[in-house]
Amino acid sequence: MDNQTLQIKFKQRINKIDSQDFDNVECWQIVESFNKAQLDWCRRNLHGSNQYKEGDEASKKRIDDLQRLLVTATLPVSAETDDYVEYQIPGPVENYFEYKRTKSFATKFEIDEYGKETDIPCCTEPRSMTVYLAEVANVDILMRDPLKNPDFEWGETFCTMQGNTLRVYKTDFNITSTEFTYYRKPTYIQIQGCRDPYTHQPGANIECEFKDDVVELLIDEAVSILAGDIVDVNQYQREGAAVEKNN
């Protein structure tokens, strides 16, 4: 949906087309409320706090609506110890939003008769490891549990997240690379020539990346936000109900 249509629909929903009173909606208010609506809508539907209790990939509709935000990246190593390899999670520039899955590859070297690691790999290609997300509080318990600790033969290990880093744990094997799949933030819209009140810079023309049916929901969500800001209770309740009814 182009931004001109979005603005017309927005003003129609909030009942302010050609309004000359003190509640006249400016373009930056549309941009700010719509971008906030995108984040609110994504968080609510990923978590499942909507009226249908459908969270991340809980239904075909959720998969279809949110799949465009999924990104897979190979993370750079930031540190390594005997117990884990630490990777830097994509920061604000990369628009990291929410964790999805981790996949690591590992190798292991043969052990000589003295119990020392040799330079001879036990397999020619790195092995794919199934990686489970675990709680930081349980690391010590998982590492000493023979049924849950990282195991090359079973092809399983676990990871934790802390300080904007991802730690993939290991024992007698080496982690060679890690693929990190996550939800990124939705692209913020901008309206051509609309001056941002925070940066004082005129905006470019950046349209919403979601499908038109989702954009309609986001317009209702944004109108509900702005109606709450200007204390328009009727529009706030109406548009908030419309978002969930058609979600």
Shape verdict:
elongated
Structural class: alpha+beta
Number of strands: 10
The gyration radius over C-alpha positions equals 24 Å
User: How far apart are the termini?
Assistant: 18 Å
Provide the residue-averaged pLDDT: 86
Helical stretch count? 6
In quaternary terms, these chains amount to single chain
Strand % is: 25-35%
Largest sheet entry: 8 strands, mixed
Which residue ranges are poorly predicted, with pLDDT under 50 across at least 5 consecutive positions?
none
Helix content: 25-40%
The H-and-E topology, N to C, reads as HHHEEEEEEEHEEEHH
Order of strands, main sheet, comes to: 1-10-4-7-8-9-3-2
Describe the structure.
By secondary structure, the chain is an alpha+beta fold. 31% of the residues lie in helices and 26% in strands. It is built from six helices and ten strands, in the order H-H-H-E-E-E-E-E-E-E-H-E-E-E-H-H. The strands form two sheets. Strands 1-10-4-7-8-9-3-2 form an eight-stranded mixed beta sheet, with no helix packed on it. Strand 7, helix 4 and strand 8 (156-162) form a beta-alpha-beta unit. It is elongated and about 75 Å long. The two termini are 18 Å apart. 25% of the residues are buried. The mean pLDDT is 86.
